[in-house]
Amino acid sequence: MPTRKEDLDAFIRRQSADTLASLLLELASEHPEVQQRLARLQLADKPDRLAANFRKTLTAWRRQTRFLDYRAGIEWASDVEAWLSQIERELLPRDPMAAVALAEALIECDESVFNRADDSSGRIGDAMRSACRLWLEAAARCESPADAWPARLRRLAEADHYGAREALWLQADLLLSQAQLREMVAAFERELDAAAAAGSTAAGDHRPALGALTLLSHALRDPDIHVRATLRRCPRPNPVQKQGFVLQYLDVGRPADALPWLEDPADWHPHTRLRLLAEALKRLGQNDRSGPIQQQVFEQTLSVDDFRTWLGHLAPAAQTAAFSRARELALDHEDPVTAARLLVDIGCFAEAEQVLVAEPARITGQDYSWLVPLAKTLEAQQCWRGATAVLRALQDAILAKAYSPAYGHAARYWHQLHAIADQSPDWAPLQPHAEYVAALRQTHARKSAFWAQVAKRQGTEAGDRLDGEDA
């Protein structure tokens, strides 16, 4: 049997037409998706009928009235993404204008969909953004006069009430030339100037134009447009707005223009400002200034990410001293988890275990996003006591809150702890495993749902062992 993609391609191409036809007919009889794909293939040279086939699906969606809950919303969005991909692959090359019409019809029904759906997953919004991208790409391949598209794009984008059509502005460069985008920016700015001259002060009157300018600044990769738009409504930008300016200037490779927005520390979160300042200086080649600033941030946070970023500001010869400094600060840090994560990152596994077992009561078990990978690493390094301290904290936090949705995780930690105990480590200064288990059984004896999960996992593991022995 072919094991590589190239082998499979070659194998299929060696087969006769009759063999492949029989296989396709067999698959079509067993899989509706294959049957539908073949039906569309029959219409390949009839794009009007192919478009009608796609429109039939869209019409059925538009007629739906039932509420889409979380799972149904995800399923609907997956169907829409597949439908858009089919249009892009099968119809767009043959009839771009029909593809535009289908994408536009889907975009225009966004309000009715959002009003009857739980889109907390964001998948429906993503599907609508994909429709916007298809609309732009299809329009770019149409033979219609190029000067007709800016007005049509604006009309479609400005009817947005949910934010899903922002992609029309954000990716407008897929359709419009640089000159057309610049003219749209100039038109919006003229409208805002005229409104200001007329004395209009209502924020709602300006919001669509200001939002469009900000998005067009990304399409043009010109942060100055974003800055001008923001300063129109907020002459004294707040730190969040300044951060947006800085990030956009860095994104387009203009770090020097980011610096003026980083000069005033007032109202900034200090670490955020210093990180961005260090990055801007680094991109300007001023590592002699950026390195100490990033070191200052790291020494205040002891964050693994800040340490790695600091290393990026240093010459290779200076990095050895940075590792020593990190180890020194970690061993003196008050939070054992922060210290252990840093020590693990720099390869000091024994020291990481040391800080964890010294004060296990200070390990906050709610920090599972950090603790789970930390325990896995310590276990892989055979730092049994450190892994035990972390797993106990995770398990204790769940049981102390009686958080039943997480009892499956707690049961997994229970069995991990027993597996580690089989390694017969020296527990000191931790409580011995048998004593810990006895105390936990007594304290949480009435949490039947947890013990059921323990028993269930134990049975599964026993079954896996038997399967392995039979094999």
Task: Write a structural description.
With 471 residues, the protein is mostly helical. Among the domains are: 24-175; 333-463. It is 73% helix and 0% strand. It contains 26 helices and no strands. The chain has helices at 5-14, 17-30, 32-41, 47-63, 70-91, 96-108, 110-114, 123-140, 149-157, 166-170, 178-197, 203-219, 223-233, 239-251, 255-258, 270-283, 287-301, 304-312, 316-331, 336-345, 349-358, 368-380, 384-401, 407-421, 433-443, 448-470. Helix 19 (316-331) runs antiparallel to helix 20 (336-345) and helix 21 packs across helix 23. The two termini are 24 Å apart.
Descriptive terms for the model:
mainly alpha; DUF6880; 73% helix; 26 helices; globular; 471 residues
Total strands: the figure is 0
Which consecutive residue ranges, at least 5 long each, have pLDDT under 50? 462-471
How would you sum up the major sheet? none
Oligomer: single chain
Radius of gyration: 30 Å
Q: What's the helix count?
A: 26
Q: Which percent range describes the beta-strand content?
A: under 5%
Provide the structure class. Answer: mainly alpha
Order of helices and strands: HHHHHHHHHHHHHHHHHHHHHHHHHH
Mean pLDDT, rounded to whole units?
91
Measured as a percent range, the helix fraction is: over 70%
Distance between the termini: 24 Å
Instruction: Please state the overall shape, judged from the principal axes of the Cα atoms.
Output: globular
Question: How is the secondary structure organized here?
Answer:
Elements: H1 5-14, H2 17-30, H3 32-41, H4 47-63, H5 70-91, H6 96-108, H7 110-114, H8 123-140, H9 149-157, H10 166-170, H11 178-197, H12 203-219, H13 223-233, H14 239-251, H15 255-258, H16 270-283, H17 287-301, H18 304-312, H19 316-331, H20 336-345, H21 349-358, H22 368-380, H23 384-401, H24 407-421, H25 433-443, H26 448-470
Pfam families: DUF6880
